[in-house]
Batch of 2 targets.
Target 1
Amino acid sequence: MALYNKTAHELHELLQTKKISAAELTADIFSRIDEVENKIGAYLTLTRDKATVTVKAVDDKISRGEKIAPLEGIPCGIKDNICTKGIRTTCASKILENFIPPYDATAYAKLAAQNSIIVGKLNLDEFAMGGSTENSAFHTTHNPHDLERVPGGSSGGSAAAVAGGEAIFTLGSDTGGSIRQPASFCGVVGFKPTYGRVSRYGLVAFASSLDQIGPLTRDVTDCALVLNAICGHDDMDSTSTAAPVPDFTKSLVANVKGLKIGLPKEYFVKGIDAEVETAIRDVAKKFESLGAEIVELSLPHTDYAISTYYLIAPAEAATNLERYDGVSYGARVDGADVVEMMTNTRTEKFGAEVKRRIMIGNYALSAGYYDAYYLKALKVRTLIQKDFTDAFQNVDVILTPTTPNAAFKIGEMTSDPLKMYLQDICTVPVNIAGLPGVSVPCGVNKNNLPLGFQLIGKALDEATILQAAFTYEQSL
């Protein structure tokens, strides 16, 4: 029986009823990795020995007739910018090539406490800066649906591992769409929670006011299970919200009758692929047929979202990446003095995209330009947040494309960073506003490539978009 393509909730039932063992399940996943990893390239590090220890603990528990947690014994992968004690965490960068954290990120620690089985650390764009996983310092990850195409980014390894059967679920991080965009490209579910809903402690910082950890899964039910495990207040993260966490599985109700779903006109502009637009409008019709009310609306400052994001995010990145100086930890390239050593280290060990964003950020923060660029971006951020606040006075959720097109070919956009940045047009407003968003598969295009739609919810209202996503999924 092939186990690698089943959902976590299906496998939980098989484990609990002793129809399979955690050892059999994990062996099946590693067998699948051995079979396809050389083609997909989802992982940077595999953790077979650690997995073996956890497997034994789970199987011993099951043999004693004890009840196991929903994700106990379920093999998962962790994006390699999430710290894992004793396991190499590189951020797909040469500057952290041999870094082994002395502590666990809170989100990972919560999974480990459930005895989820980590099988490895997943590839990404260096320091999560990119939308294709081509910016990894080590290798490019390939889309399992078409090996000549990108899996999206920056959580490309996380999405490809789920789509390719190399993990049952994974954790990614989302700063401007880095969970949702690869989820769309790879045909899986990707959830970006409300900012502060999941602790950022142990997530290597890119843009601290935008970053958020979230799950990539096979279906919406698995998504709810992972959210149950990783959400919650953490004293180690000053931006962590103290709001109570509901049981997200209670949102798995197939009913959208009376739900008001907003359809913003700004997301259907020139440049969006015709097949994507048709797919999203078909999703709207499906929701309407299920009893929801579709409401046309406007989010007028959407056009400024990319410009705003690519000032705020690089500015925060420039500050966060100052710590990689070759002194305390990470790689060091020698020089005649401290200044030359730092210069040599950063020159040789940072990739082109990371350098580009550091320079943009330092420029935006520099004297004489701070008011003209960074401060103005913060003001526009407030206007974008107000657009959503106003919209949610009239609707319960907002429906948009996740991406303007399906997965593009490897190498197709590497020479044009601005074109690559525009891939985030549908996702960055959600991060700017700190809202929850989910990407759900909605079929394929003429080239049999996955397409996804995005549902955006009110702050801390993950439950409503989960219910809407689940209703759509079950209707198929």
Target 2
Amino acid sequence: MEIILKEDITNLGLANDIVTVKNGYGRNYLIPKGLATLATPSAKKVHAENLKQRAHKEEKIKNEAQEIAKTLDGKSFTVGAKASSTGKIFGSVNTIQIAEALTKAGFNVERKNIKLADDVKELGSFKATVKLHREVSVEVSIEVVAE
């Protein structure tokens, strides 16, 4: 029995894959749970058209992410933090503060897409990786200064 997967299933396939499974597994488990649909000829045509449209949209989104990455590349952003006279920060600088600094500069990036190499607990310059797309990421420098 051929089915079209709606979700990633371990040891079977990824979402939107057309796979062959035993009749009982498909009919009694995958289809009733909403994990797959039966791959009829008409469903295969619709599936192929959806994949083509999705690929076109994905390419457009990827190109936009690459344009943003070009403008972000090599830029430095300043984040203010309360610090002691020795240069230690009270607390730490996190992705929320970095996302706010990027937003002030005109780049709308969610904080979950920002990764710091290590904890920022003192004043100085640090690197952060901003993931704009599944295949596009850029490294920016963050300058932590005392407020």
